[in-house]
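Incident review: delayed structure delivery

Summary: a single-chain prediction request sat in the queue longer than the usual turnaround. Root cause was a stuck worker, restarted by the on-call engineer. No data loss occurred. The affected request and its eventual output are reproduced below so the record is complete for anyone auditing the incident later.

Affected input:
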Amino acid sequence: MAADNDELTDYRVPALQRGLGILQMFNASQRSLSSNLIAERLGVSVSAIYRILVTLTDMGYLNKLGTNKYELGPQVLCDGFAYLASRDLVDIAMPHLNTLRDRTSMSCHLGIREHTEVLYLYRAFAAQRLSVNVPIGTRLPCHITALGRVLLSEMEEGALAVLYAHVRLDGYPAPAPKTLPELLRMSGEDRARGFVLHRSDYSTAIAAPVRDHSGRIVAAINLSGPDAVMNDDANRRALHESLLAGAAQISRSAGYRAA
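Output delivered after worker restart:
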């Protein structure tokens, strides 16, 4: 038996073991980790894991925060790690978004954050003349969309400041923030509110977060439509309630259990 174990050990790939071990370190209480702490937990030097961290970041499994801190990247979601119990996020959200569209007659979208952009993964098309439909695969700056603002609200202020330290914000019309202090203030308000209503180009979108089993915001969904519909208080309240219910259902399907 010992000989068999030794033989199996010879086939192991230490770098792969360390890479997977790094991804498994993140959880609800450890949403970001420094390279020093990662190295300490693995019992190696920072230089020994530097190339692994660079590779995981390049492949989208990690996002780099500042000079030496990391968080899980969107590729973890796409590949179905434990965060989504081996189920693809789109497969989880699709039936709920289709139901939400049918109930509200409004377009619904699902998106995740990649650095400072929101990536649209799915849309439930509302077949009406006045509808908002963003194609799958579209990338838009997070700070100018309801989906993106919800995703940014997950980040701590310091990490958000680092992410946008060298990003120009003044090229977009209101209500998009034009300075970093405005962005930080807006994100704090979005975080406290728990949802985002964003108006632009004669349309309005309401977005809410989707959480994984650890409570972390891993995606966002929205309802979007013409201002003529959204400006009515009764309509907006009803749509808001339907959106929050849909987001809660998707989160439960992704393993989230509210305290």
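Verification: Confidence is low (pLDDT under 50) at residues 80-87.
Action items: add queue-age alerting; document worker restart procedure.
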